[in-house]
Each structure stands twice: as C-alpha cells, then as structure tokens.
Amino acid sequence: MRKSYMRRVIPIILLAVALAFIFRSQLFASYIVNGESMEPTLYDGNLLMVNKVVYNLTDVDRFDVIVFHANEKDDYVKRVIGLPGDSIVYKSDKLYINGDYIGEPFLKSFKKTSSVTPYTDDFTLVGTTGKTQVPEGKLFVMGDNRRNSLDSRKIGFVPIDEVVGKVDIKYWPFSDLQLSFG
C-alpha cells in the first residue's frame, strides 16, 4: 500500500516543484529595494514581487510602480509619470501633463508631513528632439522621494523594452504588506 501511495505522490510533488520554478522564474521576480528614492512608499530593504508578464498583456499605465534595467548591472524601482507623447511640467509643486493638472494622490499625505517645500522642484521636460514630450517607446519615471531620487530628471527617459515588470506586492516586512501602488 505504501509503495503505490508513493508512486502517486512523487509525480505530483515533482509537478508542483516544476510549476513553482516556472511560475517564479518566468512570471514573477523578487526584488529588494536598495535606497531611499521611493520613500515613503517603499523603504530600503523592502521585498517586492514584480509581475514580469503584465506588460505583455496590457500597456504601462501612468503611476504604475515599475522595475527597469537602468544599466547593465543595476535595476531601479520608480513610478511612471510620463507616457510616450506626454508633455510634462512641474510648477508650484503640481504636475501638469499635456497642459492638464494631474493630481498625485499617493504623495498627498507625504507633502503634508514634509518639512521641505516644494516637495518637487519646478521643471519642464525637454526631450532629445528639443520638443517637450516623452519620445515614442520611452517612459518618464520619478521616485516618490523627489528630493533624493536618481530618476528621469537625471538619467533620462526609460526605454519601455528595459522594463522588467510592474511591482504588484510589497511582502516584507510582512507587517507592511501592500498589494497596490496606485
């Protein structure tokens, strides 16, 4: 009886391990936040689960928190601010996209508690073509810690094909579990 039970269980266990490996390596990736650029949304040492296939099925949305290849050895986590074709202006601590004011509700409580004003310095996006818009195939990203973030204001536009995926879950520390970043 025990031998026949093991013959049924072992293939199920092997299948479960194989599926877990495929699921983990092909669909999701785990990342550790390194630095302060996304504070107070994400802190140094937070563990994230990044959905690697979502952008094969849908487009990147404004305010998605993404992980992308910043260079050959570093991946960054930032928030999408500008999409291809967008004109971006930050004036008096307010974001304007294509001339329209766009609220950033994820920053509201942070701006109230920040002793530094403005929370985000004024700027007007000037692309490589001299036009004030995000080029096709690129994104404009910023960290939520606007005063201490190496983002598109310094590194330039992020090619969409360098995006690893969308941050879906912050799972460590477990007491700060978060399932949404919009």
UniProtKB/TrEMBL annotation:
GO terms for cellular component: plasma membrane. Belongs to the peptidase S26 family. GO terms for molecular function: serine-type endopeptidase activity; signal peptidase activity. Its main location: membrane. This is Signal peptidase I. Keywords: Cell membrane, Hydrolase, Membrane, Protease, Transmembrane, Transmembrane helix. It is found in: Cell membrane; Membrane. Pfam families: Peptidase_S26. It comes from Lentibacillus cibarius. SUPFAM superfamilies: LexA/Signal peptidase. It comes from the Bacteria. InterPro entries: LexA/Signal_pep-like_sf, Pept_S26A_signal_pept_1, Pept_S26A_signal_pept_1_CS, Pept_S26A_signal_pept_1_Lys-AS, Pept_S26A_signal_pept_1_Ser-AS, Peptidase_S26. It catalyses: Cleavage of hydrophobic, N-terminal signal or leader sequences from secreted and periplasmic proteins. Residues 7-172 form the Peptidase S26 domain. NCBIfam families: sigpep_I_bact (TIGR02227). One of its GO terms (biological process) is signal peptide processing. It is an enzyme of class 3 (hydrolase). Its EC number is 3.4.21.89. The active site is at S37, K78. It is a single-pass type II membrane protein.
